[in-house]
Amino acid sequence: MTTNQRFYISWTLMMTAAIVIISANSIFVPATSYIARDLGVAEAAMSSNMVFSRSGMIICMFCFAAFADLFTSRRLAQAGLVICIVSCVLSAIATNIYVFDLAQIIEAVSRATIMLTMQLWIAGISNKDNLASRLSWYTVMITIAPILAPSVGGVIADFVSWQYCFVVLGVLSLVMLAAISMFRIVDRTEQRNQTKARFSPMKTLREYRQVIRHSPLLPLSFSLAWMAWFDGGYMAIVSFLFVDELGLSAAQLGGIIMVYVAGAFLGRFPIMYIQKRYGPRVTFLFHQAIVLLATVGALCYRLLTGHHDIAEIAVMMFVFGFGFSGLYIYCLRNSMIIEPEKKSVYTSLFNALYSIAALLGVLTIQGLYVAKFTSVNIFQTLVVTATVFMLVGTVLHLKALKKIDNKL
To answer: Are the CB atoms for 258 and 151 separated by under 8 Å?
Structure first.
């Protein structure tokens, strides 16, 4: 087998494993209201699984940097798949919200593990010039998961039951675990020239503190964080907004989610060209303008008509997803090359901060439900708040770029 053949097989196996694991987070979204009904909980309580899930991701991401260099990418991918299988089993047999919440925490650990493993694996086999392109292709491929999974999950929930969503994922995870175990994955190239890494949590904590205090990572990612906050909040209300208030079925909602994710899928492509040809400033402003076009457009629609409707929200989220996904790749790429020798720390911290923002979005939803807001009013609140802080983030980002243009 040639080196190229081995690389492409490795790429295919790792990508497929990522697609399977990431599907676990979205396959049941159209059936959220069904799950709430079967488990006997209200909307605010049902969204608790998203709080616990994102909390589990954040903790795993903060810890990941201390472990990242101790194991090969293959071992980390195997661990993620095993954890995902455990999560699927617990989700399928859950008879109360506590077991379901526990399953989602475990699933979050598997998802965080595979996400960070893939990002570092790609960074290790790439250079500064092709890193954005390869990250874009990676995210294009894994976008297949949230495009297909909600649609498939909605159909399964309508015609069989929501438990079988997790049965299907568990079987696919088992197949991928066997495939990766039988093949030797091409590993991160930089490991060949490194001394053996040591487990040092205190060193990792010191590096986190240094990055937070002295790195431009926070101002560069401020605007993206508010997009993640909006995205987390939107996914927490989407089933109740469309199924309970606007009268769609779970299968129909899967189609609406496909529209949103299709925008995210298409948004991965322009960055490959814009970043290389025009540089970071134009890349940021292009995607930021598209996101603001979506949110401001939704506000203007509400102002003119006095309401939101299915078609308007679907179009708005398609445009939002387009700009949002491109900006995520842009910020992720930047986090890896500010200090290349610390990319495991930067990658873990970047993803953890991103997930914290999304978690705060879910917590916001819970608070607004407790305050008796309707799902439509919550959507409006998310749009207004995110728009204001994304504008603030634009100023912070452009100021930070002035100091590090030569690095990017």
So the answer is: yes
Percentage of the chain lying above the pLDDT 90 cut: 24
Q: How crowded is residue 330: how many other Cβ atoms within 10 Å of its Cβ?
A: 25
The amino acid sitting at 231 is: D
- Give the integer Cα–Cα distance in Å for 303 and 361: 24
Question: In the chain, what are the helix, strand and coil shares in percent, each to the nearest 5?
Answer: 85, 0, 15
Both structure tokens of 271: 């960055």
Closest by CA position to 101, among listed 62, 23, 45, 167: 45
Q: Is the pLDDT of residue 146 over 70?
A: no
Q: How far does the chain reach from its first CA to its final CA, in angstroms?
A: 37
Outline where 72-143 has alpha helix (H): 73-93, 97-124, 131-142
Structure tokens of 8?
Answer: 């492409």
- What's the CA gap between 283 and 326, in Å, rounded? 9
Measured distance CA(318)–CA(185) in Å, rounded:
36
- Residue 273: CB partners within 8 Å, gap ≥ 6? none
The answer to whether 404 and 338 are in contact (CB under 8 A) is yes
State the Cα–Cα distance between residues 277 and 274, nearest whole angstrom.
5
Average pLDDT over residues 159-163: 87
Identity (one letter) of the amino acid at 338? I
281 Cβ neighbours under 8 A, 6+ residues apart:
398, 401, 405
* Mean pLDDT of the region 24-31: 81
- Measured CA to CA, the distance from residue 307 to residue 115 in angstroms comes to 38
- Residues 223, 397 contacting (CB under 8 angstroms): yes
**Are 64 and 116 a contacting pair, CB within 8 Å?**
yes
Contacts of 18 (CB under 8 A, 6+ apart): 114, 115, 118, 138, 141, 142, 145
3-state secondary structure of 24: coil
CA distance linking residue 191 with residue 325, whole number of Å: 30
Show the tokens assigned to 107.
């699933």
Count of residues for the chain?
A: 408
